[in-house]
Structure of Putative hydrolase of the HAD superfamily:
Amino acid sequence: MKQITDIFFDLDHTLWDFEKNSALAFESVFKKHQIRVDLNEFLLYYIPLNKKYWELYRQEKVTQIELRHGRLKDAFDLLKYEIDSTLIQTLSEEYIFFLPQFNHLFEGTIEVLEYLQPKYKLHIITNGFQEVQDGKMKNSGITRYFQTVTNSEMAGVKKPNPKIFEYALNAANASKESSIMIGDCIDADVNGALEFGIDAIHFNESKIEIPSHIKQVNSLIELKKYL
């Protein structure tokens, strides 16, 4: 792939280990407010609910506020844990505060960024919220690897909308032909990029079955075979 000059990464679930850091954030918040639920049981409900709400958010069917409140309320409802709306709001806000303070990255993140940085210009495209994403990158020590960071608040749209990829390319002064997108979400990252005309690699850490024509890696260090 000698023609590639610019690499665009997703952040959550691709470089930054969202599930591990999220569990630690909830552990801190629940302890502070004496929320008496089993954390592992809570996460069994919360993780798929969070994915569902993010999908709705990408489709413009819920707002940021509805996403942050709804995923918690629905999880507590499934647990049959009585909690009032005001406390849910407090937990939501403090979870967002604690989340960027944890800095676990996927195995191989720093190694592969060190390998790629001398050869390519590196960038981020994320649907996450700017303040939170900036904190994640800063606290995990990866900000210095990236020349540009594009988020959905800047672009006014979310992946897979082609306008966010166009915004990111313009910010990076890059072309479609010389760019590639790497991310965990088939719809938002991979198909979004491919339909816009950017090549893509699926970070398939969960080893789900995907179409054979899509390039994939199961670990970040495997990117060396493509780049």
